[in-house]
Amino acid sequence: MKPRLRLEVWSPDHAAPEASLAQPLPELQAEPVAADGPWAPKREAAPWTGPLFFVDGRFRTDALIFLDDAPALLASVAVGAVGLEPGRAFYEEAAFAVRRFLVAPPGAWPEPVFSPAPGLDYELVEAGGEPEALRAAAMERRGALEMGLGDGLRARHPGALVLHDGPLHRLPAAATAGRLGFAKTHHRGYLNAEQAALLGELAAGERSPVFTFTRGERRFYSWYLRLPLEPERPYAAAATLLRVETAAPEAEALRLAPVSLGVLPRLASRPFRDPRAPQNLVPVGALERELGRRLGSAGLIRRRLLEHIRREAV
């Protein structure tokens, strides 16, 4: 018998959204939250009547350089937010920021800022190790910027729901009320095989019950949600799943789970417009393009770096 064929929705130019949905690491084994009822699909959706913001960031490696023999990284990070209200979407200008970092071993660069050209300033971040460790240090700065942006939105817009593109556990701990993160890709499972079987039964606009897990000393509440996909095709089972996550207490997690069903499915993108449809939500796709524009031209920055290095070499 021939195997049943299923197509991955995302363009092969992007990493597949499904790596694993079951067989979690022992320390990530989830526990269902009994207060959310039996382990069965949930369809109840709730509206969100307050301000609504999506937060995201873009990271780019501008260059790997050497300070004498020490490798160092030049990286740019842009963060921003898009707000939604009835009838329109808008950029929250006060939330946008572009920061550039020189990540170098301690003592390798003598000044707090590296400025190879007017308006091109890289803040020094001291970190040692291989290029992967340098990149990780720069990514920590990105996480801090995204979390700080969310804090600022909550301060300026009391009662706002802030949704982060990506799981919250990658961001530093901060105020948790009114914040959700959502994972488009599933690098690891949280459910055992019996629990994960439910995900294949979820229809568009349904979610799993809430479950909880810990990472380090932090507790999270999470659930899977299936987005609609038009036109329907024989796609892979996990092709339209989002995993939503919050670090808020259990009572707020149970309140926000129906809200996520009221907000996220109607914002699903479509394959003819986005290569990561439907998980790359429409406002997030627009925000990513705006952040890329604000990062500036990678080619122009590289040329200015080369001109600076050439002048220094004379």
From TrEMBL:
UniProt cross-references to SUPFAM superfamilies, sorted A to Z: Ribonuclease H-like
InterPro entries for this protein: RNaseH-like_sf (IPR012337)
Highest taxon of source: Bacteria
Name listed for the protein in its UniProt record: Nuclease
Originating species: Oceanithermus desulfurans
